[in-house]
Prior knowledge:
Number of strands: 0
Strand content: under 5%
Largest sheet: none
Number of helices: 5
Order of helices and strands: HHHHH
Amino acid sequence: MLKNLKAAREDGDAYARASAAISDYCVRSAGSKRLADLILSFGRQIARYAKLSLAAPERRRQSLGRWRDLVAATVSGDAPAAERLARQLVLETRDTAFKMLSTTAPSGRGR
């Protein structure tokens, strides 16, 4: 799945799909169907913002680096690092989407 992310890094839409796929895999592999259903439901609701965030080439480069580190932490069993990296991925996506929306919002709106 990391290979798919790397291969898609030049195409925002393809990268967003690959990122969603690896996220889906991680959530479903955590062992709780109920929690996975909740997280994935929320993920579907915010997918457009993740896609918006990943439209920026710099954000895709940053995301790919985080995913590499997250996979390494997970494989090595470093749960605290994996949690920190997963949170960073989410927060960086949020922050980038907010920044992009704030620069494109019509004057007087979105405040």
